[in-house]
Amino acid sequence: xxxxxxxxxxxxxxxxxxxxxxxxxxxxxxxxxxxxxxxxxxxxxxxxxxxxxxxxxxxxxxxxxxxxxxxxxxxxxxxxxxxxxxxxxxxxxxxxxxxxxxxxxxxxxxxxxxxxxxxxxxxxxxxxxxxxxxxxxxxxxxxxxxxxxxxxxxxxxxxxxxxxxxxxxxxxxxxxxxxxxxxxxxxxxxxxxxxxxxxxxxxxxxxxxxxxxxxxxxxxxxxxxxxxxxxxxxxxxxxxxxxxxxxxxxxxxxxxxxxxxx
Length: 262
Hints:
By secondary structure, the chain is α+β, with helices and mostly antiparallel strands. It has six helices and 15 strands. The strands form four sheets. Strands 1-11-7-14-5-3-2 form a seven-stranded antiparallel β-sheet. A four-stranded antiparallel β-sheet has the order 6-12-9-10, with no helix packed on it. Strands 4-15 form a two-stranded antiparallel ribbon.
C-alpha cells in the first residue's frame, strides 16, 4: 500500500511504534476539541489522480443523481418540536453517487479494505474494533457535487463519518460545521434553529485538499458542503465502517440513496 498511502508520515501499518501512538493521540485530540481530524496527503498524489481517473467517467455516465429536500435531521417528524419549528426548515441537496459494486479493484476500494486502516480508525475513535460494511452498494460510495450543487445542513446518522477528498472544486465546496451544538441529553432545538437561519457566528470552515483523510464526529456536529462553483466537480469517497459485523441497508434505503436495490 506504500504506493497509495503515505505510510511515512502516517504509519498506520506500525501500531507498536512511537510514531503511531503519537498520531493516534493527535487524532483523538482533534476529535475531542473540534469534532474532526484531517490527515492531508494521506492518499499519495499519484494515487489520488489515479482514483479520480477511475471514477470520473462513471460519475459522468452511470451515477445516481440524488436530489432531495430535507431538514437538518433528515426526519419528517422530530419528537418534542412542531413541524413548523424554525429548526425544521428545509433545504435542497444534490449529489451524484456511484457505489462499491461499480468500482471493484479500484484505488478507493483497496484503501477501504486495507486492514490497518480499520485498526487505526478504531484506535482514534477509542473503539475495540471496526468492521467493513457488508452492503454491496453502500460500503464504499464516491460522491460528486457539480456547479451550483450543495449538500445542505444535516446531522449524520452514524457517530463517525470517514471520507477522502479526491478532487476539490474550483470554488466553494467547503466543509462548514458547528462543533457539538447538541448532546444526547440536550437536543438544543433553539440553537439548531439559529444555525439553519444563518444567525450563528461560531461556524468553522475546513478546506480539504485532495488526498486528505477526514474523520468527522457528525452525529452531534451539524455540517454542510457549501455550494460548488466552476466546471470542476468536487469528488469525495465515503467509507462505511461499523463496530458490528453484517451491517447492510434495506432495499428501501438502497433505492432511496442509489435508485436501485441491487
